[in-house]
Amino acid sequence: MNIFICKVCGHIEFNAAPGNCPVCYAPKEKFEQNDKIFIESEEKSKEAAPKHIPLIQIIRECHLIKEQKCTDVLVRIGEVLHPMEEKHYIMFIDCYLDYKYISRVMLTPDVWASGLYHLKKEGKKVTIVERCNIHGFWMAEASV
Description:
- The protein is mainly beta.
- The protein has helices at 37-44, 49-52; strands at 3-6, 12-14, 31-33, 54-59, 71-77, 90-97, 100-106, 114-119, 125-132, 136-143.
- Helix content is 8%, strand content 42%.
- Strand 9 and strand 10 (136-143) form a beta hairpin.
- It is globular, with a radius of gyration of 15 Å.
């Protein structure tokens, strides 16, 4: 799979670079292809995997958006809770449905590394990408 990274905001696109970044609106020229970005992060810090691989829980019946069809995607970063400190934290968590970008949760050291997405669309696979300021990009997927 081809992976393209926005050099401005760190957004990842799968398969092809977009005309403009959906997060920061940078032009296509600001994307750089790196198909091994996730492998590089894991190889650089093998001991970091338990604190960085996203855990995904799919709830098919939303309890917040009851008047419309909704699927909840709950995300926690790491089987072992990731530290959220000034010097070491998760910068953002991105959600994709069938490799199409859905939304980003921006994080600071003042919150735990987690996120929630209320999906309107149906799909087959959710992909979660997170970026640690020290250990780079990590990814996990779940069937919807």
